[in-house]
Amino acid sequence: MVPPFPSDDGLFGPNSVTWRVHAHPSMLIGGMRALIIQSLHPLAMAGVAQHSDYRTRGIYRLQRTIRYVLTVTYGDSASAVAAGALVRAVHRRIRGVDPVTGRTYTADDPDTLLWVHCVEVHSFAAAYRAYGGPLSNADRDRYFAESVESAALVGVPRDRVPTSAAEMRAYFEKMRPSLCLSQAALDAIRFVVAPPIVGQPLPVAASLRLASIAGVGLIPHHLRALAGIERPWVKDVVARATIGAALLPLALALELPMAERANIARLRRAAAAHPFASLEPHSMASASSPSHQ
Question: How far apart (Å, rounded) are the C-alpha atoms in residues 17 and 91?
Fold first, then answer.
């Protein structure tokens, strides 16, 4: 019998900033931002380009990522550990040669995993600040410090994870010279910026497009220039003005929460009923990207 709630408070608990930030649908905007920035790392992008089916099953991949984050955030400790172990098992099988740098890559490389992790949590925080609730500088630092737990689940050494906004800035500045726009990255960015709408209900398709526009609006200008997605500032203004209403149908379709504290109980029940590690092994075999998709 499935328990109504996880057996413990998991990795973070009710007093964490993580529970608050991850209970808002702005997470979707942060996810779009993260996918674009992550693609600029050539080794991370090579793994996605050569092993992921995101082009044909984009919504499915998005739903799986949501399920993973849901389990790690609101599931009990055992479920979070099992989710991380399953992702690590998949990552161990993903390897190849990056055509841009000529270097070999593996999805379980700590350097690549650290990049994916840092971009992801930084994007979630940025989206929450823009479209969610207030997030003080101290709470943002707490959120980054709490994220050490989720990074460790997939194999990132704890002592390498930035635990404050200042450390995040230093990390991204160090990584900046290694970023580039490959053809594979350009293809992925175009997919995220203009996600296909064929086969999707119109409200979901429209909301997904707007969430992508909002995500682009949160990317630093130097990275927008590198990614080739610079645009007039008025688009950012329009997205800010309309994103709240447009996110509603997409959030419902993807089972995202539409409030914070009021929905945490529902999210915990969902994490108990459908933990990520309960996915079928054959469906995990193609979950190739280092971002747990």
Answer: 28
Element (H, E) at 116: helix 110-131
Under 8 Å between Cβ of 144 and 167: yes
* 201 CB neighbour count, 10 Å cutoff: 12
pLDDT tens per residue, range 156-183: 999 999 999 999 999 999 999 999 999 9
| Count of all residues that appear for the chain in the document | 293
Say what percent of the chain tops pLDDT 70: 85
State the average pLDDT over residues 35-55: 93
The identity of residue 161, as a single letter, is V
Sequential DSSP letters for 54-92: TTT-HHHHHHHHHHHHHHHHHS-HHHHHHHHHHHHHHHT
Please tell me the distance from the alpha carbon of residue 184 to that of residue 100, in angstroms, as a whole number. 9
Of 188, 239, 153, nearest in space to 61 by CA: 188
Judge whether residue 90 has pLDDT over 70.
Answer: yes
- Give the Å distances, CA to CA, from 190 to 53, 59, 146, 230: 15, 16, 32, 13
User: What would the pLDDT profile of 108-121 be if each residue is shown by its tens digit?
Assistant: 999 999 999 999 99
For the full predicted model, state whether its pTM sits above 0.85. yes
Counting Cα atoms < 13 Å in the Cβ hemisphere of 32 gives 26
DSSP secondary structure of 4-64:
SS-SS-TTT-TTSHHHHHTTSTHHHHHHHHHHHHHTTSHHHHHHHHHH--TTT-HHHHHHH
- Provide the angle, in degrees to the nearest 10, between the axes of the packed helices 110-131 and 26-38: 140
**27 close to 127: Cβ distance less than 8 angstroms:** yes
